[in-house]
Amino acid sequence: MTTITNHLPTAELQRLDAAHHMHPFTTGDALNKKGARVITKARGVFLTDSEGIEILDGMAGLWCVNIGYGREEMAEAAARQIRELTYYNTFFQTTHVPAIALAAKLAELAPGDLNHVFFAGSGSEANDTNLRMVRTYWAQKGQPERNIVIARKNGYHGSTMGGGSLGGMAPIHSQGGLPIPNIHHIGQPHWYAEGGDMSPEEFGLQRAQELEAAILEFGPERVAAFIGEAVQGAGGVIIPPSTYWPEIQRICKKYDILLIVDEVITGFGRTGNWFACETFGIEPDIITVAKGLSSGYQPIGGSIVGDKVAAVINACEFNHGYTYSGHPVAAAVALENLRILEEEKVLDHVREVAAPYLKAKWEALADHPLVGEAKICGMMGSIALTPDKASRAKFASEEGTVGLICRERCFANSLVMRHVGDRMIISPPLVITPAEIDILIERATKSLDECLAAVKERGLY
Ligand code: PMP
């Protein structure tokens, strides 16, 4: 058998990929016909493909590579841990130093009394943990019927049975029997698309109050928890109006509903603080983390749990766990990532340099004829594409057609910028420099210009 390496021709790698590799969230046949772009290397904020082309990664992989690609210290941390203790579990009365150290570090960094960590291998797994944990919490307190979890339409919490059910995405729910029972979805705080004539503040309040209406409809004695992303990511980087989270917090407190904030994207500096709960003033009972916890160098996630919930869960045997919960190599790599974030003052860089610089340039994209709004929170931003700014109109084409054209233009111009429907989104590595932000904006503008030309040609503008 031929050894498959970077040295094979691109066409051969694509042929093998098409023959054997099933891609997530992809129509395999269509991709296999054209061939996937083969990414072979990455350093800092740049990817390199098998043709030697350098691409600026405006998405930090999948919102995860916060410290940038290719850090030698991270490779060393993994190698050291593999030599010391490759693997051990924490199921049967044992523990190990990387899991202890990472849990203690997360307790130190997380706000409030979020002092306890249940590890998982990913964000989806961590949200599955959360779902079982909040239901178990109420069952232990003698209220097993309190098992409904309220989430949002167009939220994203992963693609396992639990995570996909908590998420509110129709294409996910349409396959495989989701959502599972006793999960209810309320409206999202997406003012641009759904706010009509209301002010963003009025709309934010109204959407938060849908939570209260749902609680009263089911009866508070049936509702276990509410879950939401601090800022919706995969839904299109939807930054909630300022009125939204305080109202959600008030309602959860009033009815004693547990509050889970999914910080899989927003955790570890993306909004300028360690956690977006600090940015938005939220006091959750549990937060979900993954992605930036290890900057994507190893698969690891977890639930950071407050004292109240942990006290109840610790009093029973919680029949839940993953072979790789707290994997020593993943934990050691995550610890090294946190050391880099702290010692290199990456959050200061975000707050003082990268985020303000990016914000000014990003918001200026709202002047482009194709852009209806340009929003950004820390280092995650979105722009809405529209044929008519004033009315925030949609294109006559199927939703996502123009977004896809724009994304393809970006890719051709060596920029990774993702589309969600007809919204374009970015979430670059936090270590991106002003000079690299200039490149990002220059390529984004060129791609928008080309997209506008293509849209005009198709009579959509
Ligand atoms: N929650 C949020 C907010 C996410 O953005 C994601 C992944 N995009 C997940 C959960 C799921 O994480 P994973 O893909 O690691 O399972």
From TrEMBL:
One of its GO terms (cellular component) is cytosol. InterPro entries: Aminotrans_3 (IPR005814), Aminotrans_3_PPA_site (IPR049704), PyrdxlP-dep_Trfase (IPR015424), PyrdxlP-dep_Trfase_major (IPR015421), PyrdxlP-dep_Trfase_small (IPR015422). Signal peptide: none annotated. The keyword Cell inner membrane does not apply. Its cofactor is pyridoxal 5'-phosphate. Keywords: Aminotransferase, Pyridoxal phosphate, Transferase. PROSITE patterns: AA_TRANSFER_CLASS_3. Pfam families: Aminotran_3. Gene3D superfamilies: Aspartate Aminotransferase, domain 1, Type I PLP-dependent aspartate aminotransferase-like (Major domain). One of its GO terms (molecular function) is transaminase activity. SUPFAM superfamilies: PLP-dependent transferases. CDD domains: OAT_like (cd00610). Belongs to the class-III pyridoxal-phosphate-dependent aminotransferase family. This is Aspartate aminotransferase family protein. The lineage of its organism: Bacteria, Pseudomonadati, Pseudomonadota, Alphaproteobacteria, Rhodobacterales.
